[in-house]
Amino acid sequence: MSIGQGTRLGPYEVQDFIGQGAMGVVYRAYHAQLERTGAIKVMQAITPDPDTVARFRHEAQSIAKLRHPNIVDVYDFGEFQGTPYMIVEYVPGGSLASVMEHGPLDRATALKYLRGIAAGLDYAHGHGIVHRDVKPANVLLTNEGTPVLADFGLAKLLQGSSLKSMTGVTTGTPAYMAPEQVTGHQVGPAADRYSLATIAYEMLTGVIPFDGEALMELLYAQVHRLPPTPSSRDAALGPDVDEVLMRGLAKDPAARWESATEFVDALAAALAAQPAKALGRTMVIAQPHSPAGSSTRPATAPATALLIDPETVEVAYPSPPPHAARPKRSHRGRLLLGVAAVLLLLLLVGVCAVVTQATTLEVSPSRTVPGGRVTVTATNVPANQVGEIQLLSTVQAYVFRADANGDVAQEIAIPSDIEPGIHHLRICWSGSCHKEVVLRVVSDVAPASPTPAVSPAVSSPSTSPTPSSSATPRGAPSIALVSVSAATRTAKGKTTVTFSNFYAGSAVIYVCQGASSTCKSAGTQAVAPGPSTTISFQTPDAIVALKQTYVVACGSPCMISNSKAAL
Q1: Going from the N-terminus, what domains does the chain have, and what CATH number goes with each?
Q2: Which of 24, 66, 270, 435 has its CA 20 to 30 A from that of 376?
Q3: How far apart are CA 454 and CA 467, in angstroms?
Q4: Catalytic residue among 76, 133, 151, 541, which?
């Protein structure tokens, strides 16, 4: 839909076209009586059915009540030819994305922007509003450089009536989406704080946490993988900054910072500590002036003067003697050189021995119940390393920091809704996982007699032992698109896919179209474990007919299907 110049929407007159994005098209408009310029967002992505329009009005009323210097003001809203629109404050200074595309920001500038964004988020969260799509492109800048959050809450409006069955909102930008958004779980303020931590990571390192990933791998990484520590991208950041940012990027929403401002304050403190540590290592070597008339004859060298200062060490360095007095190299010097080389070699051997020590990982007790607590211990982790302990089969991760000896001892709470069976815990840092152990979750804690080792595959109850699954190896999991139809005016669309060798029990489904891989969530779908399972689900309303379409399913692991033209 296009709106011609001069069209009146309430008291605003459309002036010209500004641009187009995921929400729809944007026009500049002018209110003559107030002499005020605004931006009109015509939200073509929202299905114009009566139920969705009613939801739009309800959400728009809530958003319009927000009044904060770091949140774009909403002036008015309504419908034009059945399509919802919103008139908001016009911010002329461009977006934060255009500033960040040139590389890392200096620390003072980064903290200035982050403090403004955090203040706006905390204010909105205090009024029960979650943004759901915090990213640099949605942060506008005034002419004075003040960050202003735009499109507040509009991601929720995009979920539409076709997504009512979902438990949460999965609309957002994948690079900045929290794990619970990817999996379709309930979304709250912690998701916005995860996005803010992602922006902070990008501001300081110049790249997003999962840089260079294709869409399928990126969605999987947001849920299951630990990003590289910021200091691995820029060594000047250090472990204190790592700890703050990695807590902000925790997979578990409850493990993140309790407010956006608390996160930025902790980051500012960690960054402030870095220059002081670097300055404390500075050494200035000064060569004193020789007094007039002093002898050129080599005399006893004066004692080296150490002028101790908390920040600087200054060393007075004597002038070298003339060539005539140059001492003859002795055998003793060669001997000392040889001893030093041997010591250096022994030191290197010792370091290599320490480095090659394998990381150990244990969990106690190794058997627990849903909602129970266990202690995870690890050794031979890099000293002061920040990382995550990941509980597989569910979306759970727990941030840890090793002590100076490289030891970890962390108590973790097992989710109360976890399925009984065999689960895996692993310890990860610097973008990779290093050790894994088995955790058995049972439905009760009654003592049981030891049982012989069995295959970790879950089997159905039986009076006789089940043969090990290793006798009949499974093929690689895959997914095939059987058919896909787009929604029409009279009927919902339907998508049918077949899973092969898939045993995770459920998968988060995305239906994608076009060369730019525009993907829309179809929610979390149950998939019966087995060698071949076919399921059908409702096609997201944004999928259109005749375009090439494929499906991404993320369970364990993520899979991508063949493509077909939507009917």
Answers
A1: 1-90 (3.30.200.20), 94-288 (1.10.510.10), 360-444 (2.60.40.1930), 478-565 (2.60.40)
A2: 270
A3: 8
A4: 133
